[in-house]
Design a protein that fits this description.
It is built from four helices and nine strands; from the N terminus they run ααααβββββββββ. The chain is of the alpha+beta class and 168 residues long. Bound molecules: zinc ion. Zinc ion binds at residues 77, 79-80, 82, 125, 127-128, 130.
């Protein structure tokens, strides 16, 4: 009886969530819903896009044609095609990278990185985990956020065009 009780206790413990419930981070904790190895992504994407999305490289500022993209439309993840930003939230930050003050709901997850000396908030596509850029607190109102995105990690789809099917 005592053994059975302790087994029950053990199983009860393993059913407990490992982290406190926080709906905003639920997607991140579960991990990307589209999982591919880096080798698979490397075979699917042009090298510059692969290096940014899955090796967290940063493109040289001023190099992306999306800096000058002013049309109405949607910016989707260049890896899995999940819509990440709407053109109505894009602005000219003067940094040389496409910048937005708000992502689409649940589209990006964040994580602190220390790739340079001070901590920065990295953000990535919640669906495939592909790295997009870093978010800073010097953006315009109403959010005050600046999502500084690598252009090569995005594809622009004009409003009149059909959004691509999500990559599987
Ligand atoms: Zn993605």
């Amino acid at each position: 009886m005592e053994r059975r009780q302790s087994l029950k206790w053990l199983f009860g413990l393993s059913a407990l969530p490992l982290f406190s419930a926080d709906p905003a981070r639920a997607v991140d904790r579960a991990g990307p819903s589209l999982r591919k190895s880096n080798a698979e992504w490397a075979s699917l994407l042009p090298p510059p896009a692969y290096r940014v999305l899955f090796e967290e490289d940063t493109e040289r500022p001023g190099t992306s044609p999306l800096n000058r993209e002013k049309r109405d439309g949607t910016f989707v993840c260049a890896a899995c095609y999940l819509p990440l930003f709407d053109s109505t939230k894009k602005y000219e930050s003067g940094t040389g990278w496409p910048s937005f003050w708000q992502p689409l709901p649940d589209a990006v997850g964040t994580r602190t990185d220390f790739k340079i000396l001070y901590p920065r908030t990295e953000y990535h596509c919640t669906r495939c985990g592909g790295h997009q850029g870093h978010v800073f607190d010097d953006g315009p109102q109403p959010t005050g956020k600046r999502y500084c995105n690598n252009g090569v990690a995005l594809k622009f789809v004009a409003r009149a065009d059909k959004l691509p099917e999500l990559r599987t």
